[in-house]
Amino acid sequence: MDATGAKLLPFYLVVDVSYSMSGKKIASANQILPQVRDALAENPILSDKVRIGLIDFSNDAQVQLPLCDLLDPSLTLPVLSVRGGTSYVAAFDRLRTEIAANIKQLKVDGYRVHRPAVFFLSDGAPTDPDADWQAAFARLVGDPAYPNVIPFGVDEADGAILARVVHPPSGTKQMRMYLMENGQDPAQAINTMAEIMVSSVINSGRSVSQGESGILLPDKDELGSGVTQHAPSDWV
Amino acid sequence: MTAPRPPAGDPGWRGDPGWRGDPGWRGEFRFVPYQVGDPGRAATVPAHPDPQAWDQPDTILDGYLIGGPDTPPMTLRAASVRGRSHRFYGRARQDAYAVRRDERYVVLAVADGVSAAPLSHYAANVVTRHGCHEIRAQLATTAPEALNWSWLLRVLAAKVVAEGRRQLGQPDLPDSEVATQLAATVLFAIVELAPRDGYHPVHLLAHGDSSAWILRAGQHWEAQQPIKNEGTDLASSATAALPYLPDTPPVPVHTVLAPADVLLLVTDGLGDPLGNGTGTVGGFLAEQWRRPPEPLAFAAHVDFARKSHDDDRTAIALWPGA
């Protein structure tokens, strides 16, 4: 069916599935998409425009759910399981090619695509050399269709590292990152972060409905317990 | 006991379900809502009122002949319709239109209030109504080609700010803070009622992303401005809007309307799905609007359902002739 001119707001959930994520953490991560889907089901206006994709990464990165309408009745949500390693290079490179391919195809199909947003969830530091993941990230955000990147860190994730993958890192459209507070249960923290992601999808989608383009994130005082919000400059 | 019969000479009595006489009235309203392509889930959402704006109607519309005492008539249809997003979330329609006429010209305006600013429906009303009024006043002594559009936009920007201060009850609020509360795009058309060599000269000025089109000979939509977002990788909703003034002097567009053409002014709620005019929406509107439809039908056409297009929509269409 002719979709010419239809507006889309793409979100990519990128999840660290290194071995350290096993158990309750990966179980919590697997609940993120069902929660987003339930929220969209209650918001028919937004569900017409929001598209979600899921990529997981360890030593390699895999597209577990190509960008799609989560309410598509024929859809079965993937269940993530853990593998070895934490390669941010693999994650960023895969994300970059996936975003570029999706936008290219959607444009061919006549869609008007808004700037994508990426929720990047990790529980540890990258196993790649610093220069390598930084170069991969620079490639990702160097594209004209660069995404907004919102990192979520739990457990052993390093705030100083995640602060470097917030994008845009400054200016009027500056994004934020979310970190688990020390001593919290990481699976619980992922549940809280899922609420932040749902809130962002709903509010950003609504903002597009109102003629805005920006990705909206919840205010600091709207966060659930155990998770804190930071601007990248907090780490400088 | 049998039901009483109608008294002789009363054609309107229908108390008896078996009675098949002349009911005394005629007419029918059989409405199937328009869908163009996939209507989307939003097509079926319920509508809710805006508790902050009871007097802002969901839909307004007009249909009439318009012409000067010594010029042939033209046919006008106009409608401004609340989008499905505003209906669902209980927010007022923020679009507006206005029409003024003197002996030589009809002046048309559509405006789109900026959603992020909560009082934008006041801005849309001010810029269309006051803008048309002011243009008509200027045209008494000035040719359309010689209008000072920069001056007009400055006047309208000041009007928007003044209206904002009045609505907010804060006479000393700085301009920049008022502008966060209300803003609107605006598009004007001046159409000369007397044809020159069979063609009506048309003068257009847009500030922001409302767009003017001409359906040439009932066949294809000709955009009177660059197509929004065409050629860009990613879509943007950013647009110019009063009281923010353009950085460079506004440039009017001059064209002509032939006897078989239709002039169309729309806000982006309609301009976005119309795209470059060659798609399904362009075909739908060309088919429906080749000739003037009934005014209520015109509003129903404007309100067509199409997935992801849930913005307020406003259209003014003008046909040469009656």
Automatic annotation (TrEMBL), chain A:
<dbReference type="InterPro" id="IPR036465">
    <property type="entry name" value="vWFA_dom_sf"/>
</dbReference>
<feature type="compositionally biased region" description="Polar residues">
    <location>
        <begin position="226"/>
        <end position="236"/>
    </location>
</feature>
<feature type="region of interest" description="Disordered">
    <location>
        <begin position="210"/>
        <end position="236"/>
    </location>
</feature>
<protein>
    <recommendedName>
        <fullName>VWFA domain-containing protein</fullName>
    </recommendedName>
</protein>
<feature type="domain" description="VWFA">
    <location>
        <begin position="10"/>
        <end position="201"/>
    </location>
</feature>
<dbReference type="InterPro" id="IPR002035">
    <property type="entry name" value="VWF_A"/>
</dbReference>
<dbReference type="Pfam" id="PF13519">
    <property type="entry name" value="VWA_2"/>
</dbReference>
From TrEMBL, chain B:
<feature type="domain" description="PPM-type phosphatase">
    <location>
        <begin position="82"/>
        <end position="290"/>
    </location>
</feature>
<feature type="region of interest" description="Disordered">
    <location>
        <begin position="1"/>
        <end position="22"/>
    </location>
</feature>
<dbReference type="Pfam" id="PF13672">
    <property type="entry name" value="PP2C_2"/>
</dbReference>
<dbReference type="InterPro" id="IPR036457">
    <property type="entry name" value="PPM-type-like_dom_sf"/>
</dbReference>
<protein>
    <recommendedName>
        <fullName>PPM-type phosphatase domain-containing protein</fullName>
    </recommendedName>
</protein>
<dbReference type="InterPro" id="IPR001932">
    <property type="entry name" value="PPM-type_phosphatase-like_dom"/>
</dbReference>
